[in-house]
Amino acid sequence: MTTQQPLSADDRVFEWLFAATAETSYYLRLLNLMWSDAGAEHDLTFFRGIAKRLHADTAYWSSLIRDVNWRCGLIGCVCLLTTERQDFFDELCFRFEMGSMVAPQLAVTIGLLHPAEAIFFFEKILATPSLLTTPTRRVSAERVLVYLGARQSSEVTLQDWSIHEKDHALLADQVVQQHWDFWQPRVQHLSKV
Question: pLDDT at position 107, please?
Answer without folding.
Answer: 98
